[in-house]
Amino acid sequence: MATFEYENLIESIPDYPKPGVVFKDITPLLADPDGFAATIKELANPYRDAGVTKVVGAEARGFMVGAPVARELHAGFVPARKPGKLPREVAAEDYDLEYGTATLQVHLDAFGPGDKVLIVDDLVATGGTMVAMIKLIEKLGAELVGIACLMELEFFNPRDILATATDKQLHSLVKVQ
To answer: Which domains does the chain have, with CATH numbers?
Structure first.
């Protein structure tokens, strides 16, 4: 259970990036030193003894929470990027968003056998981004140890989608119904 009142520092922006979507703006939370620190600590806590060697976060907001969680766990950070953003050979995975489709890529040597990988993102909605990261982890031979996010949009039933790809449970700090 979250001990910080994150909702007070997350702004809801209606009709962004398109009509009907309510964008959850975490920049006020990131700008608040106590809120940002609490976010990173609480995302990392369940995985402190899991032997995490790498944390992967999706472009771009996943970088903002994933990289500090990696530092907190003394693990490496792997950026999952949009096509054309990584300079070396990549593994790629297509996925669906709540408002479109996209592709994620990681370098082929981002992780591999022996790596224990934690997925960290700011938000899970339909679960497509996380399923794509799970597939990339598996494709490169690493082990998924967990999935953590700041916000879970429960009305999209992301846990059902994630259950089709892994038996790992989702750890989220804020549940939006």
So the answer is: 49-176 (3.40.50.2020)
